[in-house]
């Protein structure tokens, strides 16, 4: 990957109105604004002047790690290095997770043409992810001096960029190994079970009404969104041709096979 690739990816995932044509030129930070006008700052990334050189170093390191380094360690070093640099004003977290997938795939760690649900597991366990990020960000914030003006513009008072330039990726590597292990042991088997039950539900539903696959998929989705019941508005718009008896039988299949068993629900309140 090169600088142009990072910019292209950022433009793909961020609203075009807010996408960047280059790395950031301002001092951004990760934090939250309080109702009283105050700010809680969780992390201050390197200064704008350091972003370009650091990204060049990251790209060079990415090339170097292709040979002789375990793909998981390479993915941890590069993806977390990227998110610590925080080179864009938006989209850094999503690109960070993309890099994990991309490096694992190019390192032949994951099976070819297979979606390895690492990101899903990360997002489902945000406390662990945030703890990993904080293992670095807290060290940065302990020695960073800064001030924020009334418009929320932050100015660093001392240089802490070296902490990002030479960060220790041990905890990040251990975290990623743990996420991958849990993905293999728990997430993938659960997804396989769901897919098998999904196919079984579809076949059972087709014995009730021989509908096209896309119609059955829509019926299942609508029921999952409404506790196993097809909402009146969805029925009127998409399935007016089905009888009450057919609707009941189809809902029963969804509840039994995809929602953990028989459920007792009254008529849908959605209109």
Automatic annotation (TrEMBL):
Superkingdom of the organism of origin: Bacteria
This protein's record includes keyword Transferase: no
A GO MF label: ATP binding
Residue ranges occupied by any Fido domain in the UniProt entry: 1-149
Keyword annotations: ATP-binding, Membrane, Nucleotide-binding, Transmembrane, Transmembrane helix
Pfam name, any one: Fic
Catalytic site: 86
Binding annotation for ATP: 90-97
InterPro entries: Fido, Fido-like_dom_sf, Fido_containing
Membrane spanning residue stretches: 68-88
Gene3D superfamilies xref list: Fido-like domain (1.10.3290.10)
PANTHER family assigned to the protein according to its UniProt record, in alphabetical order: FIDO DOMAIN-CONTAINING PROTEIN, FIDO DOMAIN-CONTAINING PROTEIN DDB_G0283145
Protein name: Filamentation induced by cAMP protein Fic
Species name: Leptospirillum ferrodiazotrophum
């Amino acid at each position: 990957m090169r600088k142009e690739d990072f910019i292209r990816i950022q433009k793909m995932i961020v609203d075009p109105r807010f996408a960047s044509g280059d790395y950031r030129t301002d001092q951004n930070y990760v934090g939250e604004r309080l109702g009283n006008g105050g700010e809680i700052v969780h992390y201050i990334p390197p200064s704008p002047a350091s972003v370009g050189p650091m990204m060049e170093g990251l790209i060079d390191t990415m090339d170097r790690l292709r040979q002789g380094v375990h793909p998981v360690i390479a993915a941890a070093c590069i993806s977390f290095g990227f998110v610590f640099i925080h080179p864009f004003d938006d989209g850094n977290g999503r690109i960070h997770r993309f890099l994990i997938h991309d490096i694992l795939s190019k390192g032949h760690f994951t099976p070819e043409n297979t979606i390895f649900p690492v990101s899903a597991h990360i997002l489902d366990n945000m406390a662990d992810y945030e703890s990993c990020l904080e293992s670095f960000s807290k060290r940065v914030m302990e020695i960073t001096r800064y001030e924020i003006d009334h418009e929320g513009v932050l100015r660093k008072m001392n240089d802490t960029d070296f902490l990002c330039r030479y960060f220790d990726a041990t905890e990040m590597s251990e975290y990623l190994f743990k996420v991958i292990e849990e993905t293999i042991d728990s997430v993938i088997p659960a997804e396989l079970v769901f897919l098998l039950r999904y196919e079984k539900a579809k076949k059972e539903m087709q014995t009730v009404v021989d509908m096209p696959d896309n119609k059955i998929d829509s019926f299942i989705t609508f029921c999952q969104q409404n506790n196993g019941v097809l909402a009146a508005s969805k029925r009127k718009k998409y399935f007016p041709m089905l009888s009450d008896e057919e609707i009941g039988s189809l809902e029963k299949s969804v509840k039994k096979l995809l929602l953990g068993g028989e459920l007792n629900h009254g008529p849908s309140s959605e209109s």
